[in-house]
Known about the structure:
Elements: H1 9-23, H2 27-47, H3 53-76, H4 80-94, H5 103-115, H6 121-128, H7 138-151
Amino acid sequence: MVPVSPESDLASTLRAALNAARKAQDKDRTLVLGTILANLKNREIELRRPATDEEVVDVLRKGIKIRREAVEQYTTAARKDLADVEAAQIKVLEEFLPPAVDPEEIRAAVRSAIGNGARDIGKVMSQVLPKYKGRADGKLINQIAREELQAG
Length: 152
């Protein structure tokens, strides 16, 4: 019988990608993957157990969010060189996220929630967000919910 690793598949994939980047001497990729794995290790210390794939995705999304905010700040400060570095790091991290949910699928779920009596943004979000946790950006869901509430 093969022993089952307590580590998530996604965490293993990230570690393998880091090792491959090190072997290829890709400094930028090594840096961003090393940073995310350090963030993941901190998360596992908080949890006091290995992270699940869903928790690994949360760490990735948080890393992407931080980098998106940095891109905005660098763009505002007219530092395109630094904004480009952050944008490249976002692309590396996005490689490890599960495929994004089609916005039309989210729109259908929002319409369904509104049809079931949700009349304000909080009620719509509380019904729709759990269905897409870890698979869709909360900002996107919020934007679609606002559009549908205004249209309805």
